[in-house]
Amino acid sequence: MPSILRKLFLCPLGACPFKPADDETGCWGECIHCGKRAGFVDRATLRAYADREYEMRQAMKEST
Question: How many angstroms separate the CA atoms of 23 and 47, rounded?
Fold first, then answer.
């Protein structure tokens, strides 16, 4: 389906195809057609998630 048709049909229905985007404040998904942003996560939350994931994996290694 050509890009203009995707924009006309998918974006108004909320079915935007998102690509990852980020800057110094955080990251989000951005529609490749209309530019709409969704799912913003700030850097502190991402860091906390990564730290917790690392701790869980280290605990699993130590227990085996």
Answer: 15
- Distance in angstroms (rounded) separating the CA atoms of residues 46 and 39: 12
**27 Cβ contact partners less than 8 Å away, ≥ 6 residues apart:** 20, 21, 40, 41, 46
Model pTM score: 0.62
Tell me how far apart the alpha carbons of residues 46 and 27 are, in angstroms, rounded to a whole number. Answer: 9
SS3 per residue for the chain: CCHHHHHHHCCCCCCCCEEEEECCCEEEEEECCCCCEEEEEEHHHHHHHHHHHHHHHHHHHHHC
pLDDT, tens digit (0-9, with 9 covering 90-100), for 13-56: 777 888 999 999 999 999 988 888 889 999 999 999 999 999 99
